[in-house]
Amino acid sequence: MRIGIFGGTFNPIHYGHLRSAEEVREVQQLDLVLFVPSATPPHKSRVELAPAAQRYEMVRRAVAGHPGLRASRIEIDRPGRSYSVDTITALRRRHPAARLTFILGLDAYREIATWKQYERLFALCDIIVTSRPPHTETDLLEPIPVVARSSFCYRRAGISLTHESGYRVIFQRISDLAISATRIRQLRRGGRSIRYLVPDPVERYITRDQLYAQRVTSR
Fold first, then answer.
1. Which CATH number does the domain housing residue 97 bear?
2. d(CA 54, CA 208)
3. What is the pLDDT of residues 14-24, one digit of tens each?
4. Taking the model in full, what pTM does it have?
């Protein structure tokens, strides 16, 4: 079994996330993609971050009924900060016979050297790095510190790497849907529509719970 791991704050989840997961699932022939909302992300400010339980609920509603996509509470149920290396290690214990594939965007990959025990990630799973508009291709070796590069061999002019463990790092071009969670939150604060940016069940949930809405102050 091949399982994809798609982590993030999902604040909120939107069609860009869903389309990315679907394209990676199809091209990489994954049996399942787990959406893993982070409880306490180490690299992001908590400003405007909806509670973890609500972000999980939005993800759950977004993927409900979609074969091959599933929401996971693994980081929400684990205390402390949400580190990818801990999540992937835990998922390897849960699914010892599965081959895991970690999915992340190009922007996040470029900061991978700042992640906790980043070197271990390459020995735990395959990594798919997805494009972000307006970027097309990238040199996957560039974000990896020089001291760690000897563990890789080059493939396809630097856009595909093979680690000494046998796992691979692959760049995948995906549809350029210029949708961002930041923009969705901005629209909400301004009282504007977010229809067609997020799935209908997510829009209804955000509206019902007044997530990301501008606070009204009394005079």
1. 3.40.50.620
2. 12
3. 999 999 999 99
4. 0.90
